Amino acid sequence: MGRRLGQHFLVRASVLERIARAACPEPAPRVIEIGPGKGALTAHLVSRASEVIAIELDEGLALRLRSRFPGITVISGDILTTDLARWGAAVVAGNLPYYITSPVIEKVLVLGPLMTRAVFLIQKEVAQRLVAEPGSRDYGYLTVATMIYARAEYLFTVPPAAFHPPPKVESAVVRLTPHPPPGERPEELLAFAGQCFRQKRKTIRNNLRPGYGPQVDAWPEAGLRAEQLTLEQFAAMYRRLRGVER
Ligand code: SAM
After folding, report:
1. How far apart, in Å, are the Cα atoms of 246 and each of 220, 223, 243?
2. Spelled out in words, what is the top-level CATH class assigned to the domain 9-178?
3. According to the CATH classification, is domain 186-242 in 1.10.8?
4. CA–CA dist 49, 102 (Å, integer)
5. For residue range 190-217, what is the model confidence (pLDDT) as tens digits?
6. Residue spans per domain, the chain
7. Contact 9, 94 (CB under 8 A)
8. Residue from 1, 3, 4, 5 whose mutation best tests the ligand 1 pocket (most atoms within 8 A of CB)
9. Angle 204-212/186-196 helices, nearest 10 degrees?
10. Is the pTM of this model over 0.90?
11. pLDDT, tens digit, for every residue of 157-199?
12. How many angstroms separate the alpha carbon of residue 128 from the centre of ligand 1?
């Protein structure tokens, strides 16, 4: 079961402490930990937060966590189907199971200001995508999704040897700090950006024409690809479609 659930446990204490410090630079009222496993990071979070909610899919590990940390709330369940908003504002942290990195990040981003801050250990390659510049190789849908809701920082790289068992790839710690999204309907802007990236190599015209018709032909961005556009350009195209701006 272990590898299937992305169970690569962090064993290097210095990395665990750096993640906990980045998540809670000062004492935090509440932390939601995603994928606590055996509790390696949890042990560093409990001293920094008044309340820790740990969400772990593996029932055996969840049981062990409950007896190791009687003072925390352990939810035995799938992070992707858990309503995170029900706890109110919280710091979110975790050494994420890599097979669901992108959906977890999206889920946490759409919490908006309920996410005080998020600090995640993820694949280095995904971390690079979160902080990529428009026009670069790593820039894509996940970058734009992140920029709509938050400022992303690449904090430091973590080698495979810091885990047991070691993953095949290098990892990195990122921090997401929420900011107000451009416009009032960030979920719709995000869905629109998704359509612009539908086929990455195609132009905006070719990706949007099936859904929006020939009006897009006249746009200044029509001949460009989504990976070349800034967040401001996505927001401007979206406003144009909604008729807020012609
Ligand atoms: N935080 C621990 C550590 O650093 O040692 C474990 C990290 S391990 C990379 C990922 C953890 O997420 C595993 O304990 C795994 O069982 C758990 N997990 C996998 N899929 C999950 C899901 N859908 N929801 C919640 N937890 C999940």
Report:
1. 12, 19, 6
2. alpha beta
3. yes
4. 26
5. 999 999 999 988 999 999 999 999 999 9
6. 9-178, 186-242
7. no
8. 5
9. 120
10. yes
11. 999 999 999 999 999 999 999 999 998 899 999 999 999 999 9
12. 21
